[in-house]
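I hope you will forgive my troubling you with a question about protein structure. The full record is reproduced below for your convenience:

——
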Amino acid sequence: MKSPIFTVRTASRCMEDAKSIPTPMMLFDELWFEQELCILFADTNVGKSLLAVQIAQSIANGTAIPGFRLGVPGQGVLYYDFELNDKQFEKRYTDSQGNSYQFSPNFYRIGYNPDCKVPRIRSQDVFTEIRGHIESFHSHVLIIDNLSYFASTSLETAQEAIDFMRAMKILKEEYRLSIMLLAHTPKRNRSFSINEVDLAGSAGLSRVTDSLIAIGIGGDSSDQRYIKQIKVRSAMLCYGSDNVIKCRLAPQDGMLGFVFEGYCEESDLLRTPDRQEVNDRVILLRAKDPSLSQAEIARQLGVNKMRVSRILAREDSKDKA
């Protein structure tokens, strides 16, 4: 007999059943929890991979990154690296004296096989191999660097990307996985707050994720970074615009990565925008999502609501002329 698609229970029954389910623990502070599908996104060359490798090593070794909390013991992590080849990875984690960083034996790095001659890699083939890795290495933590690899090989349309994310979510439920996907943003203006709309394909991708984490560059600095919480389901939103995590790119314990420096408001780390930049950004946000209120646009950009109102009023008067 075919299993039903839905289950029907009283709310009280749901509460009782949930008591037997273990509480998800923190994998990367309150930004990413066990059994969540998370997207970590940023502009190119901001440090997504550096942070993702740090997180993977932290979980594999069972040791928290200084400044961040970890709630799980050391365990296997499958890190799918489609950004760096072996030599590039080795050079990144070798110091000027030729000393290589010692990764945990629980850290499994998986890359593209150059001997694979398949003309077009299909999503179903990717998932078949991932299932095999999960079962072979008994790992429940996956980090995929990055989503654009699949977009350029097997995902030809926005709908295919969304279908891929849904399939990833099904895989997560099937094996009780914790999955982090890295994603790029289109080129963005550092004068403005990072938001969900900065994630490429945001409308479709964000709907099926449990958490969204963004990385920004602090002003015009080459090494200042900040981490911002965009979406969360397993906790309160702690690291929004008024309390981002301030970091610096530097070696720590032999690994180049994010060094925790404290907390601050995102506005403290943004460049001061000129008048035209603000005008363009206000108009762009409304064009992307006409349902956004003027107050929400002002909040996202960190400007006065009256200023947003005046910009939109001028734009509307141009359209009527």
The longest strand covers residues 255-264. The mean pLDDT is 87. The two ends are 65 Å apart (CA to CA).
